[in-house]
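task queued by scheduler; priority normal; single chain, no ligands, no partner chains; default sampling; output format set to structure tokens
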Amino acid sequence: MALSKNAPLLESARYCVIDAPFGRLGILTELVDGSLMLSKIDYLSAKTPLSKPQNELAKEVAKQCKAYFNDPHFEFDLPMKILGTAHQQKVWSCIREIPSGQAKTYGEIASAIKSGPRAVGAACGANPFPLVTPCHRVVSAQGIGGFMKENSPGLYRQIKTWLLKHEGVL
């Protein structure tokens, strides 16, 4: 699936929207150095119009998301476009090690990587691959904590609550 060097980004990037138990998921796949990669997952409201996956990777992402919705212990295996700062990468790597059904606090992750809880929270909020890099498993020492840069009740906190209940944490 090679594209000419003059091919516009729109030809190499495809976005689709799939159904999820808590609303919708937006999936962005992109051609990176000749390989199709997952470059972003968005949590969207149930009002967002659905659009079918347009390439094999998007279909695979949708299939693996559905497998997770059926089995919270499902483990994702997807090629992802490397994004983020060195600190964000360190946080996200640590988060991917948290097993389904468990949670860690921002402070625990900060201690493990010699950082601060707020810096961990900022990295969680910048996570381009929610579900795959399960930042919903990172909680406050006083409760559920924020989610996707949202610190008050709203769509993202509802999604975090659904995910933690799905995995048996709440």
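post-processing summary
- The chain has six helices and five strands.
- Helices lie at 9-12, 56-70, 86-96, 106-113, 117-125, 155-166.
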